[in-house]
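Hi team,

As requested, here is the filled-out complex form for the heme C run. I kept the field names the same as last time so the parser does not choke. Let me know if anything looks off before we queue the next batch.

— J.
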Amino acid sequence: MKLKIGIIACMAAALWSTAVYAAEDVKLKEGETLFRKHCVVCHPNGGNVINAGKTLKRADLTARGIKAPADIVKKMRAPGPGMTQFDSAKVPDKEALAIAEYVLAAFH
Ligand code: HEC
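And here is what came back:
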């Protein structure tokens, strides 16, 4: 009996983590699609065709204090010279966060 409960608990845990990973994947996929739509022209492969020093690679971002998804959203709302502005009418917060999480996960 104890063994059975143990097995059931393990299966439940495995199913749960699969579901969580799957949800995370969907979000990253959405972020990738939106990134391709809005950002990839200037940031192919996480680079920067206009200002080559300001890439989306992790090391570059951290050097400028961009560490969390919210920091990337802030940049989209108030970009530096040469970058298109993305206000919340163009890219709502939820989509902006999906893009930001994709950027942090994809480019190292
Ligand atoms: C028209 C070209 C262009 C587009 C489109 C664009 N960017 Fe940028 N991006 C730039 C330029 C130029 C900079 C450097 C601006 C500066 O000096 O702050 C930059 C900087 C950044 C930075 C800071 C990088 C660093 O190393 O400091 C982030 C983050 C960023 N962009 C994210 C995005 C995201 C996300 C999108 C899409 C929603 C996007 N950008 C779309 C041109 C663009």
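Two things worth flagging: The first helix runs from residue 2 to 38. Residues 38-39, 41-43, 48, 50-51, 54-56, 60-61, 64, 66, 72, 75-76, 79-84, 86, 99, 103 surround heme C (CB under 6 Å).

Thanks,
J.
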